[in-house]
Amino acid sequence: MDDKQRLFRLQYQAAISPYYHGVLHVLFVFGLGFALIAIALVQLQIQGGAGWAWLGVPATLLFANVNEWHVHKNRLHKRGKGRLSQLIWHRHTREHHHYFTHEEMRVASTREYRIVFFPAYAFVMVAVQSVLLGLLCALLGGRNLGYIVFATAIAFYLWYEAVHFLCHVDENALLRHLPLVNTMRRNHMVHHTQALMTEYNMNLTFPFADWLFGTSDLQRSLLGTIFNGYGSQHLKPEVARRYQELGMAPPVPHVQAPLESVSQSVVPADLNKV
Questions:
Q1: What percentage of the chain has pLDDT greater than the value 70?
Q2: Confidence (pTM)
């Protein structure tokens, strides 16, 4: 971590409310999320099975994956004109991508969960949108379809948050060999290379839309892209050239020295030089 990133982390942490509690943040999102999924599933009319309504699972996952890609590329990394759009862009591009770079992706304390997980109100907004989507599907395809689509949408959001968190923790043997998760850890580290962040690896759940729309940094089949792991031997030629121009090797998650909390680190004496 260079002095610029260290200073940014120190200033960001100093601005976090003393009432913020990272563990409570996580418990609220995942506790409420699993509760909503359970409530939806117990409402299913299972006499004779839900039948074709279970097709709502893959359909919702694909729709949500493309929507995730669109929001990440065109909302989180593009500064819009509206106040909400600018707030979202600032929190993601100006804060998250300065707090975490490919040189240091890890969190050191639970207070830093604030910069990893979306705000709690974001989950409430997603839940409301999922209710509306479920109601629409219920009108079009019946009660079971509505509940299944709703539960799948909530589960997708929780999966996003879980994988994103796993992208910002220490390297270990489990994560290195866990299919899909290892792929997303490498992909997200590449995405946090600031020179590439607006162009490559927008997905965090599974890289379907990145493969579909050509924003994966890899040149592989869909299955090869999803289960690529930490490998960098299939880089697109234009991406390999970018790394050469940047004078760096493709970043790969690796075991690093223990990360101290920024508040314990030495802050540069002359802040103007950072």
A1: 94
A2: 0.92
